[in-house]
Each structure stands twice: as C-alpha cells, then as structure tokens.
UniProtKB/TrEMBL annotation:
Pfam family, one: Myosin_head
PANTHER family xref list: MYOSIN, UNCONVENTIONAL MYOSIN-IG
Localization annotation: Cell projection; Cytoplasm, Cell cortex
Residues annotated to bind ATP: 102-109
Name the UniProt record assigns to this protein: Myosin IG
TH1 domain mapped to chain residues: 810-999
Start and end residues of each Myosin motor domain: 9-693
Entry GO terms, CC: cell cortex; microvillus; myosin complex; plasma membrane
Organism name: Seriola dumerili (Greater amberjack)
Family: Belongs to the TRAFAC class myosin-kinesin ATPase superfamily. Myosin family.
CDD domains referenced in this protein's UniProt entry, alphabetically: MYSc_Myo1 (cd01378)
GO molecular function: actin filament binding; ATP binding; calmodulin binding; microfilament motor activity
Top-rank lineage group of the source organism: Eukaryota
Amino acid sequence: MAELEGLEFGKSDFVLLDEVTMEQFMENLKLRFEKGRIYTFIGEVVVSVNPYRQMDIYGKDNIDAYRGRELYENPPHLYAVSDAAYKAMKRRAKDTCIVISGESGAGKTEASKYIMQYIAAITNPSQRAEVESVKNVLLKSNCVLEAFGNAKTNRNDNSSRFGKYMDINFNFNGDPTGGHINNYLLEKSRVVQQQDGERNFHSFYQLLRGGSEETLQSFHLHNDPAEYVYTREGATSNNDRSSHRAVMSALEVIGFSKEEITSIYQILASILLLGNVQFESDGESVQIVGLEAVNHISELTATDPESVSKTLLYRTVATGGGEVIEKGHTEQQACFGRDAFAKALYERLFGWIVGRINSVIEVKDYNPVLHGKNTVIGVLDIYGFEIFDNNSFEQFCINYCNEKLQQLFIELILRQEQGEYQREGITWQHIDYFNNQIIVDLVEQPHKGIISILDEACLTVGNVTDTVCLDSMDTKLAQHPHYTSRKLSPTDKTMEFQKHFRIRHYAGDVTYSVEGFLDKNKDLLFQDFKRLMFNSADPVLKEMWPDGQLSITEVTKRPLTAATLFKNSIVALVDKLACKEPYYVRCIKPNEMKSPVLFDDARCQHQVAYLGLLENVMVRRAGFAYRQPYARFLQRYKMTCEYTWPNHLMASDREAVEAIVTQHGFQDDVAYGHTKLFVRTPRSLFTLEQERAALIPILVLFLQKVWRGALARMRCQRMRAIYAIMGCYKRYKVKAHFWEVERRFANVRTMADYGKSVEWPTPPAALSQFHNNTVMLHRRWWARQIVKNIPPSDMLEVRAKVAALTALSGERKDWGVSRAWERDYLANTNSAFIRVSKELRNKDEYSQVLFSGFCRKVNRFNKSTDRGVLVTDKYVYKLEPKKQYKVLKRLPLDAFTGLSVTSGIDQMLALHTSSEDDVLLCLQRGELCPNQDRVGELVGVLVDHFTRSVPHQHAGFLFTLQPQTQSVSQGHGGPRHVVRRHSGFNSVHVSPAALTLLD
C-alpha cells in the first residue's frame, strides 16, 4: 500500500530519494508534513514529525490494517514499526526494543502511548482474563506516570521530566505476561522552582483542581494553585479535572488500595503545605512563622507536630566522641532543608509508585521449562535533548543521556553495519559520519570527565563552591575541543565569568550555569528528615524511607552522587538496549510555536543533521535490509525449495541457500558474505515469507497425519494388550473368589454357628449377583440347620419371635426376644383365671390361648383402670381381675384389622377394629421382672396367627410402628380423640397425647 500514496505526498521512504542531499531530504519532509503525512520511513526507522493536532490515523481499522503486514505493504506509521518489532520477537524468539528519541516536544511520549496501544490491541486473541489484566495495567501505568512525572515546559505542554524504559514480557504464544518499568532522573528540582511560564508536575494541579471539596478540606487545601508557593507560577489547564479522574481510575485498575491512594495524595498535600512554611530570625534563633501549616503537615504525614518543627529548625549531629548535639539552622539553611525535604518526598513518592506498579506487572515464578521462552519488547521513552535560556544540572544530565543514545544509534546503525559489511567481504563504499564518542568521554571519562570532577569537588573537605568546581573543569578540560568557558574564551560575551561553561553537543552548543551543580550533585538530605518519615504511622511513608531506621551515631558509607548514579543507570540502559534488536522512532519538532501548520526549515534541518538521518539514509540505501547466517536462513526457508527439503545433500549450507535464492529468482537482490546472506530489499524476504506461510499448513497437516496414524496404531496395540490383560485378570479374579469362598467355608458344617460368623470375601463386579444368590443360599441352609435342632414344643415360640422380628424390622430396641415367652401369664399366676378360662373354652369353643396378661385401660375421659386381657384364636376378652375375672367385653378376633405400637420401651399398643372402636391399652410388666417387655410377644403371637392360620381372611391386617416422642400436647377426650383413622387401609397413628396417658 505504500506505493498507493500518490506523488503529491512525496516519497514514503527517504531511501527512494533521487539524490541523497539535505535539500531533497528537507523538501520531502516538509511536503509530507504539509499533506498530513507525519510518518516517513528510512528503511525500518520511522521519522515522526509532531503534528500538534489530533489525527484520525490510530483507530481500530488502522490497527487491523497493519496487523501482521510487512513494512512496505502499508504507508509509514508507528504501527508498522511496532508490528515489525513484535513479529521479529515472535518469529525468531529474539528480544527487541523500540527506541524513541528526539527533542523535548517532538512527540516521544505520544509515540510511546500509540506503540503500547498497538501491542495491546494485537495480542491475546483468545481473550484470556489474566493477559487482559496485564495489558490493562501496562496501559494504565502510562496515565499514572504521566501525572506524576510530566510537566508543562515552555517547549512542551506534556514534557516527560523523567526517563522511562519499559520491558514487556511475552510468552511463547506472543501474549504479554508482565513487564518492568525503569525510571531515570526525575527532575525533582521542579517541585520547588520552575522557570517563568512553566508548571510544576501535573499531579499537584490535578489534585487542586480535580479533587472534591471534601477531599481538599480533609487535606487542608484550597483549589487555587496560586495560594501555594510551589504551584503559583504555573497556570491551570482545562483538562486537570478530567485527568485527575482518569488517574484515580487508573490507580484502582492497577491495584492500589484506597488507603494507598489516600496516602499518595496526602503526601502531595503535605508537600504543598511544606512550601508555604516560612521562617523568621530574631538574630539568635530561627522560628517558624505560624504553626498551623506544621500541624497540618504533621496530620497528613502521621507524625508528631513537635518532631516536624524540630526537624525543620534543627539538625542533629554526632561528634567524634559519640556525643549527639543539636545545631540550629540559619534562616537560609532552614529554607534549604525545607525545599530539600519537599524534593525528596516527591522523589521517594514517585519511586514508590513505580515500584508498586512493578510489583503488579512483574512476571513471578516463571519457569522456562514449563512456560516456554520468555521474550521481551522494550519501549524507551526518555527526555529529549534540551536547550533552555538557563540550563542547569538537570539539563546537563538529560543531554548526556541523549549523547549516550545517539552513540548507541551510531554503534548499531552506522558503525556496526558498515563494519559487518567489511567483515563479511561485501563490497562497500564507506560513509563518513560524526562519532560523538568524544563528547561522551568528555562527560563520563574516569578522572578526567565532568562527572568525575564534580564528584571530586563534592568529596573535597572545606568550602568548595560551584565557582571553584568550574575553575577545576577549566584547568583539566582546557584543551578539549568540545568544552569552553568565559575564562577559556574571554571574547565570548554570551557567557559570564565564574558562572557558565559550554559543551559542543552533537545536537548543538549548550551553555550551562554552574550555579547549584554541587548541591544538586550531592543531593544531601538531613538524616533527621529520614528518621522523621521512617517513624511515621503511615505504612506507605514508612516503606519509602527505610534508611531512616539508622540512628545518628551509626556510620554509613557515603552515598554515590546524583550524577554518578545517573551515569551508572544510563550505562546499564544502553547495555540492555544493545543486546536487543533495535527499532527506531526519530521524532522531529517542526516549530517552537506548537503550530500545526508551521514548518521551520532551519529548526528541522538542524534536528535532521544532529540525529544523523541523512547518514542513515545513505547507509540504508547502499546497504541491505536483511542479513542472516546461512544455517538460520536455511532452517527457516528450506521447505520452499525442492532441493533443500527436508535435508539437502550439498557440500555446504551456503550452496543450499544459493539453491533457494536461484529457484525464486532473487540472484540480483542478494549478496553472499563469508557467514551470512544479505538481502537488499524487504520485498524479496516478504515473498519468501508468503511462500513459507502457504507451505506451513501443508507440512503441518502432513506431520499431523503421520503422527495421528502413529498414535492410532499405538493406541490400538495398547487397547489390545489392555483387553488381553483384562480378560486374564477377570478370569483370575473369578477363580480367586471361588477359591477364597471354598477356603473360608470348607468347615462350616462342624462350626458351632454353621459359618454365620465367617466374613464373605468381596466379590468382583462380574460376580455381584452370583455372590448375592450364594449368600442367600447359605443363609437358608444355616436357618435349616438351626431349625431342625429345635424341639417341636419350642417351635410355636420360635415362630412367634420370627414373626415379631419381621414385623418390628429392628425399630423397637427391646421386644423380649432374649426371654422365654409364656403367653398365658394369667393362667400361671391365678387359679381363678384358670377356672374362667375353662368355662370360656367350653362356651366359645376356642382351641388356643394366644396371649393373656394384666393391662391398664384408658377411656375417653382419660381415666385408667386395671384390667385383664385374654386373646384366643377366636375372641379377645376384657376381664375384671377384681371380680373373679368377670368378662366385661368380648370381641371377635376377626373384627380387628390392625395393631399399632411405639418404637420406645413403653408397653402401649392400639388394637384397631373395622367399627372404628379402637382399643388402647398398656400391658403390665411382670412383678419379678419390672423391665420385662410383653408388647413384642403380643405382636409376634398375633402376626404369626394371622399370617399362618388364616392368611386368606386377614390379608389386609396392618401393623403400624409409631416413633416415640417426648413432646406433650394438651388433648382432651377419650381414646376416640387421640386415634386418627386413615381411609382405605384401616391403619392408625397415635398422637403424643395418647403416649403421655398410657406411658
């Protein structure tokens, strides 16, 4: 699609210029900017011009257009280089990085956000929740870091005042699994002082303008930034309120707790209030003007007000003898300590926020064996080269950082590439370029560089001033071609004596003011402030100041200076970038007015020159877009040639690679080195990728077919073996079961219990039914053996007990099974009853007494009387024992349809009749055996009689067992009121009232 851009938009790739001159380069760059084409390629490098306006080229449709496409297929875009870095990482499992460089205000921060947006959009197609969570945190972290690390400067409304390098970790599927953020040199001096027209960090204004009224009141703040010394210089912005809401939302998404968010903004509020603390001196001592601000600071930092005042006014010092003394500050020292404390508070807060984000997104417990290779894409968004009217220590460090990044660009793009062509024996015309190593050495060289001179001055005992340090630099660097000062160039009136020095950077000459260099390099903060914060009751503040736990008498190693720390971190950053495959975004600022239509030719040409873009075009134009060792090239593309698939038979890998190139007709677009193949244009490589992508599914299907066949054959063999083993094992289990049963029951005939106590072995599943039948047969045999030894005279009792056992089903615990059942208890104790019984036998002609005994009868009025009951095979008699067993009532046995008893130990039972005139009675236990149970005996006798003697007439006789209960209901009336009859089956249920009466 790159070719689809008409000629009216200029050349989409500077490599396609007719002549590589500065005039043609600038003419093409200006034409594309005026036509709204802000991106242009130099091979794989993207040149970006800040449009200073919103452009509709970043939506979902644009992301889909660049997803998985090659660079030259679409117009130049940030998405193209992002996709190229992602594909290189995923295809070759190689770490990559995207380095975004340019001046302050050139659009680096926005470029990094669009790159992150693209990477987030093209990953996690399966929408896994954990990957989405990582992506959300990575994206939301930009919002938070901008709020606390960016500020408005005269050159940029959203200038990064810190350096950020983010590593994004990907799993073998290409989905982000975590990341890590490194921050570099936060410009903390901005907290206490800004240049005219600039603002403090965004976070302060967002809190003041976006915080709710209740929040500001709780922080003792007002919503006017002009009321605070640290923010009165900056103007508020229209989007401070909306930005504050976005930051609060982002903090919650990342995982900050509500308490942590409150602590963050309490620290911001305490910094603002700290700036309003004023001091006055009466000549002898210094006092704080008004203690209201101190009390508020104490409340917000969860410290003691007296400790805060004391820390601001005094310094605790340990003498050589171990004695601790307090030294009062002068008014100037108190102001210096206050500002140093404010800067340190904000710096620690920012570092804690970055660390907190890292704790959420860092990959934990990663095991390459289980999870595959973890690859990385790094995104570097760091402050750009700066030249202000007054350039201080911060600008010196920032410009040194840009020198190191430019050196990396020269190393990787210019010097290494040309050196590789020479090593590989590729014909090459050398291209001259400016190597800024001499400037890097001027700053960082040991013992001779500016940083070393600053550190030496900081370590020198005595009153060493910034002027003395400048004199030392003038002495040691007088002969350096890129260093000068007013002392070394007396005629240069743009510099002042004992104040300015100038470095000739790759991006232009910068004059630095040496004032404050030593103080900022020492970065000293009184230990009293550290101890004060470490003793805070706020856990967030306490965590930020671990060094505050040291007492004043503990000797600690002198900390490294700010410049040395920054140098070490930048050297580590460059080493980290150098081991990755780099992709570059070179940002250009079109004008100083932030105008979307103005293109300042001189300004842009200066940037093109110091960024080395023209030399980059020359190297790319004369060089090759892609190079790869023969073995790796062959491994990737051998399936596209019939002579190399699956394995070649040629003398060397180079000959095999030549066969691939010849088959595809790329002979004129490649060069052969000693160990690598060089491809000039990306189109040739894309053609190979397309053919490879078309062949991969065919090869995959072939491999799947072969492997599935092998799996099926193995599975079939395994199943056959399994079934053979299963058959043998089943037969063995059946035989083993028979053998075990035979062994256990071999001598049951001679056992006392005929094998009842023998435990049956657990049968296999196939013999479960057979096992049940066998157990049943054994039980029947056992019963036959037992029964045949019982005398005929005892059989009647045995049958009754068996009938009772069957009827009660084990629900009644004690039913008299362990004793002999006498049945006719009245005949055994009373001669009068014997006489009455004979008379009744002669009269009613019954043949057998089933049961007789004393009982207690309850009538409908809840009155009970002692009675006798006689149950024969024809009638049931109610007798009066006190009147010589006179028959009070006679009921035919056939009239009874059911019997109900309880599950307890009581002797209550209910006899049911077809006329609904049920009989409730409670049997009396024996006099000699008060615990004797006779209910079971009566149940057994009746059930045995009805089931054995006349089963055809009483097939509907029902026995009901009611559970015993301890609850009592206040019933009234006689038995007819406590017995409820069910229609259809003549069964009864006895209420708790009846149980209470009869028990």
